[in-house]
């Protein structure tokens, strides 16, 4: 009986400690505008600054654009995260740096939420087909290489964030690889590419 109880207990506990190999996605359909948006699940606290501030995030993409959007949740004070002026730079394991620009409205709270796109601010002034190609090239790099450090710059301060494994997220350095793969493997994007 004890052995049976132990086996049942292990079966119940095992999923809590299992490594997340798959990233789940959700599909939201906007019937008014006719767009489909796929969003990955949020990885909570997958990055940590030396100050103890933490980074959580998810990726979103809709079927009307080739650009991905990186939505972050940051617990810390950097002043404000400001539209078009706050930067998020991702250093990859190949030493390349991908710069993101904030598209969302300014947030001056102690736990700001912001949406970034993998383009420099100056890229946004280019013709759509040009900045789409730059964004696509940046996404290809993010899919290929793990991130080693993220620099998040607010209106007053910046911080460097490093991968922080948790019980649920064993390989946080694979955030972009896993999340972009999950988006691209969603049925609405698979059928679009075929």
Cα-atom Rg, whole angstroms? Answer: 18 Å
Overall helicity: 25-40%
Global shape? globular
Biggest sheet, open or closed, and with what strands and sense? 8 strands, antiparallel, barrel
Helix-strand pattern, N to C? HEEEEEEEEHEEHH
Low-confidence stretches: 4-20
Main β-sheet, spatial strand arrangement: 3-4-5-8-7-6-9-10
Number of strands: 10
Portion of residues in beta strands equals: 25-35%
Task: Report the end-to-end length measured between terminal Cα atoms.
Answer: 54 Å
Q: What structural class do the secondary elements suggest? A: alpha+beta
Mean pLDDT: 88
Total number of distinct structural domains? 1
Keywords:
194 residues, alpha+beta, eight-stranded antiparallel beta barrel, 4 helices, 26% helix, 34% strand, globular
Description:
The chain is 26% helix and 34% strand. It has 194 residues and is α+β, with helices and mostly antiparallel strands. It has one domain (23-193). Strands 3-4-5-8-7-6-9-10 form an 8-stranded antiparallel beta barrel. Strand 4 and strand 5 (69-75) form a beta hairpin. Helix 2 packs across helix 3 (175-184). The protein is globular, with a radius of gyration of 18 Å. It starts with a helix and ends with a helix. Mean pLDDT is 88; it is low at 4-20.
Outline the fold blueprint.
Elements: H1 2-17, E1 25-30, E2 35-40, E3 43-49, E4 54-62, E5 69-75, E6 87-92, E7 97-102, E8 113-117, H2 128-144, E9 147-153, E10 158-163, H3 175-184, H4 187-193
Antiparallel strand pairs: 1-2, 2-4, 3-4, 3-10, 4-5, 5-8, 6-7, 6-9, 7-8, 9-10
């Amino acid at each position: 009986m004890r052995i049976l109880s132990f086996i049942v207990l292990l079966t119940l506990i095992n999923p809590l400690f299992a490594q997340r190999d798959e990233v789940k996605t959700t599909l939201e359909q906007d019937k008014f505008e006719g767009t489909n948006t796929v969003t990955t699940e949020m990885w909570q606290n997958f990055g940590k600054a030396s100050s103890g501030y933490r980074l959580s995030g998810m990726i979103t993409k809709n079927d009307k654009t080739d650009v991905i959007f990186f939505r972050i949740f940051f617990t810390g004070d950097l002043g404000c995260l400001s539209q078009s002026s706050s930067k998020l730079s991702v250093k990859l394991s190949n030493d390349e740096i991908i710069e993101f620009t904030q598209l969302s409205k300014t947030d001056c709270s102690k736990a700001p939420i912001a949406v970034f796109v993998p383009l420099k601010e100056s890229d946004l002034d280019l013709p759509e087909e040009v900045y789409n190609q730059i964004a696509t090239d940046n996404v290809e790099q993010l899919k290929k290489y793990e991130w080693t450090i993220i620099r998040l710059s607010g209106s007053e301060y910046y911080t460097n964030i490093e991968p922080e494994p948790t019980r649920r997220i064993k390989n946080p350095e694979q955030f972009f690889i896993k999340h972009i793969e999950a988006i691209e493997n969603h049925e609405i994007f698979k059928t679009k590419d075929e």
